[in-house]
Amino acid sequence: MKSLATIFLTIIVLSLIFTVSCSSTKGNNIELGTVTDYRSYREQPLAKNGPAPDFQFQMPDGETMFLSDLQGKVVLLNFWAVKCPYCVLEMPYLQQAYDLLSSQGVVILGINTGEPEKTVAKFISGKSFSFPIILDPEYYASILYGAQYLPTTYFIDKAGNISTVKIGAFTSAEQVSTALKALLQ
C-alpha cells in the first residue's frame, strides 16, 4: 500500500513538473505585442472605402503606436486564433506575402483574439514569423472591427481606408500577395 501511494505521488509530481515546463515561454525569446487601447468615442461604422477604426497597440519591440501611424503604407490586419485551424493554416501564406512585399511598404499585423500570451507564444515558438503578432486579450480591436468569425482579414489602403474585408482563410500566398499588390499601385 505504501509503494502504491509513493508511485501515485511520484506521478502527480512529475505531471506538475511537466505541465509547468511545457507551458513556460521564458527563454524562448518570443516577442509579442499587445492592443493597449482604443477610442470608443471615435468608433464609426465600418464601410468599404471608409476610414479604418483607430486603436493603440504595442509592437513586439515595445514601441507604442496607433494604427493611424501606419498611414502611407498598405496594412493587412488579420484577426486569428491558435484554436482556429484555418487561421493556423493560412499563417505561412501571410508570412510569404510579408517576405515578398514588406520592402514595398506593406505592413501585416496578426491580431490574436483573446488567447493567453503563453498559448500564442507556444504556437509561434520555432516558427519563422517575422510580421508582428499583436495580442488582443480584451478583444478591443476585435470588437472595434467586428471580427466575429476567424480568420477575418482587413486590407487598409495607404490613405487609411478599408479597401477589402475577407472572412475565411487564404488558400495561397499568391492570393494574399495579389490583394496587397493591388493596393500598392
Low-confidence segments, given as residue ranges, are 7-27
- The CATH homologous superfamily name equals Glutaredoxin
Q: What is the helix/strand order? A: HEEEEHEHEHEEH
Number of helices: 5
Provide the residue-averaged pLDDT.
84
Given helix and strand content, the structural type is: alpha/beta
Q: How would a crystallographer describe the biggest sheet?
A: 8 strands, mixed
| Helical amount | 25-40%
Strand order of the largest sheet: 3-2-1-6-5-4-7-8
Explain what this protein looks like in three dimensions.
Helix 2 crosses helix 5. This protein has helices at residues 2-23, 85-101, 117-124, 140-144, 173-184, and strands spanning 33-38, 55-58, 64-66, 74-80, 106-113, 133-136, 152-156, 162-167. It has a single domain (29-184), classed as Glutaredoxin. It is globular, with a radius of gyration of 19 Å. With 185 residues, it is of the alpha/beta class. Mean pLDDT is 84; it is low at 7-27. 35% of the residues lie in helices and 23% in strands. The protein is built from 5 helices and 8 strands. It has an 8-stranded mixed beta sheet.
